[in-house]
Write a structure and sequence with these properties.
The complex is a heterodimer of chains A (340) and B (203). The longest helix of chain A is centred in the last third of the chain and has 16 residues. Chain A is built from 5 helices and 24 strands. Chain A has 340 residues and is α+β, with helices and mostly antiparallel strands. In chain A, strands 13-20-17-18-15-14-21 form a 7-stranded mixed β-barrel. A 6-stranded antiparallel beta sheet of chain A has the order 7-6-9-4-1-11, with no helix packed on it. Chain A has 3 domains: 159 residues, no CATH class; 125 residues, Cyclophilin (Beta Barrel), CATH 2.40.100; 35 residues, no CATH class. Chain B has 203 residues and is α+β, with helices and mostly antiparallel strands. Chain B has 2 domains: 67 residues, Gyrase A, domain 2 (2-Layer Sandwich), CATH 3.30.1360; 123 residues, Cyclophilin (Beta Barrel), CATH 2.40.100.10. In chain B, 21% of the residues lie in helices and 31% in strands. Chain B contains 4 helices and 13 strands. Chain B starts with a strand and ends with a strand. The chains are: A alpha+beta (340), B alpha+beta (203). At the A-B interface, strand 16, strand 19, strand 20 and helix 4 of A face strand 3 and strand 4 of B.
């Protein structure tokens, strides 16, 4: 059990979201930065779909009533466990009675707090994600809430080899279309040469962008059709909207391009004022980027403790992570490597 | 059959109409294809979302004509009467733009027989085909940030009902207490594609 002393600016439960219900109009929701969610879960030994807390901008203060292991991944968060600064991207043991105090996010927009075993909230349509659009799932954290945690074996001492950075200037790779014909002939080229800024009226459904107007050749609306995360919609005013995982399932604005899957987690870290540029790639390049990301994830975790204890943890990790292909640990002059 | 890629993880398939999109969804759904994530039927398209590392999309495109040939499932068509209090925020404006009286707007809206064409936008939100052409008008230029649950509204050639409080740009004619989406029900959406809907005005 974990007691919420302060909820923070906006802290919600998120997992991988609701899958398989889009034909009923149910948004996927789930972590806005799904890669950081996976990193946090990986560090505490959870499966990828375990629920974590999505901390937006900062702020929650939590008291642990149990011994457990936690990890933070995502935008750089000022956090303290009692009086000690808490490093990110490491699995950290926590004793009952300790207080985690989160300050501001210094980079990015969201940080994920995973706990060994995952949070156990009441699932709605097989997910504990808070859907901020349709109002599903557990409500965002409030002061005084008691959070339940699933029991789990506790491994700690792991860290992530190469944590990502979250700069406010990013290049996002896109695949052009599918509605290129709804725009003037030079619109796509102009869009790819321009810089866009994230506006304040952005949320978990989408980022509203400001920048060079994207002129339409057809002022009408599309017939309502299914839409995807990462789509760059262009309403009549020519200012694009970039869809995030909590978007409604259908829409009627033409889409000039779609951010590739490998780059979509980055979208959840873009704060108002962030500057974006877009680069057109092929489907083959998009798939190669996605595959490279999955390969990285399989070797992302490294044990921090040298020695026998670490070696034992290595074996435990191999058992609890069937997808982990390789892990290594330095013991003095020698390196212990485990390869599947 | 016309298809277009939507990014690296989705394909948009054109269909003849909404009913054909529903039938194609059912036919593909029965195949239990590996790596398939979502099938979203709409007005005259089916959006196919997939995991590009698991789903063989080229083979899928080749097999599409074959999916179309499979016999359509005969869904049980249900009829629903939905009671409406016609006190919507946009009722007078719709009357003004259409040149009808408020009473006539209510009569035209409640006299029609609607068919659920598809569910979209928000959980359980029905796109109801069958709106009287006299009432067809575009959605609001600037959507409302909050429309209450149960709002009965119109846009273009459709009528709809907001199942939850969400933002929305449809013109609101009235309100209903009928619960359209309830996750505790085995089928959470009350109105399913193909169902028939009548609106009954409450005094």
């Amino acid at each position: 059990m974990i007691t919420v002393l302060e909820p923070g600016w906006f802290t919600s439960f998120q997992d991988r979201g609701r899958n398989g219900f889009a034909h009923l109009g149910v948004p996927q929701a789930g972590a806005a930065d799904s890669l950081s969610l996976r990193h946090a879960n990986l560090l505490v030994g959870n499966t990828g779909n375990a629920g974590a807390l999505e901390i937006t901008l900062g702020g929650p203060i939590l008291r642990f009533e149990i011994n457990t292991v936690i990890a933070l991944a995502g935008g750089r968060l000022e956090a303290h466990l009692d009086d000690s600064p808490l490093p990110m991207y490491q699995s950290i043991p926590v004793r009952a009675g300790q207080v985690l105090t989160c300050g501001r996010l210094l980079t990015g927009l969201r940080c994920y707090l995973a706990v060994a075993g995952g949070f156990s909230a009441e699932p709605v349509l097989a997910s504990i994600s808070t859907d901020t659009f349709a109002g599903f799932g557990p409500p965002p954290l409030r002061a005084g809430d008691s959070l339940s945690v699933q029991t789990h074996t506790l491994n700690h001492g792991w860290y992530l080899r190469a944590p990502p950075q979250f700069p406010d200037n990013v290049m996002l790779r896109v695949i052009a279309g599918p509605h290129e014909k709804w725009f003037t002939s030079s619109a796509l080229a102009d869009f790819l040469e321009s810089e866009y800024e994230v506006r304040t009226r952005s949320d978990r459904t989408g980022l509203r962008l400001a920048g060079r107007q994207i002129p339409r050749s057809n002022p009408g609306e599309l017939r309502t059709q299914g839409i995807v995360s990462g789509a760059i919609q262009v309403p009549g005013d020519g200012q694009p909207i970039l869809l995030l995982p909590n978007h409604g399932t259908t829409g009627g604005y033409p889409v000039i391009a779609v951010v590739i899957h490998a780059d979509q987690p980055r979208l959840g870290q873009l704060r108002p004022g962030a500057r974006l540029r877009f680069e057109s790639v092929t489907r083959a390049q998009a798939l190669a980027a996605l595959e490279a990301g999955e390969t990285d994830l399989r070797t992302a975790l490294v044990p921090a403790d040298p020695g026998l204890l670490a070696a034992r943890s290595l074996m435990q990790l191999a058992k609890s992570h069937p997808f982990l292909q390789e892990a290594s640990v330095q013991m003095g002059q020698r390196k212990l490597r485990l390869r599947r | 059959m016309n298809t277009r890629f939507v990014g690296d993880s989705a394909l948009l398939v054109d269909t003849e109409n909404a009913q054909a999109a529903q039938q194609l969804r059912a036919a593909i759904h029965r195949q239990s294809l590996k790596g398939l994530r979502e099938l979203v039927p709409a007005y005259n398209t089916l959006l196919v979302e997939f995991d590009p590392l698991e789903f063989d999309v080229m083979q899928f495109i080749r097999r599409l004509p074959q999916f179309l040939k499979t016999s359509p499932l005969r869904n049980l068509v249900r009829e629903h009467d939905i009671e409406v209090t016609y006190n919507g925020e946009d009722l007078k404006e719709v009357a003004r733009v259409t040149g009808l009286s408020v009473i006539e707007v209510i009569q035209y809206h409640s006299a029609a027989t609607y068919t659920v064409a598809f569910l979209g936008f928000a959980p359980g939100f029905p796109y109801l085909a069958g709106l009287d052409p006299k009432l067809q008008m575009p959605r609001l230029k600037s959507p409302r940030t909050q429309v209450p649950a149960g709002a009965v509204a119109i846009a273009d050639e459709f009528s709809g009902v907001y199942p939850q409080a969400t933002p929305g740009g449809w013109r609101i004619l009235g309100h209903t207490n009928t619960v359209l989406f309830d996750v505790s029900r085995p089928v959470p959406a009350l109105l399913m594609p193909g169902d028939i809907v009548h609106f009954r005005p409450l005094a």
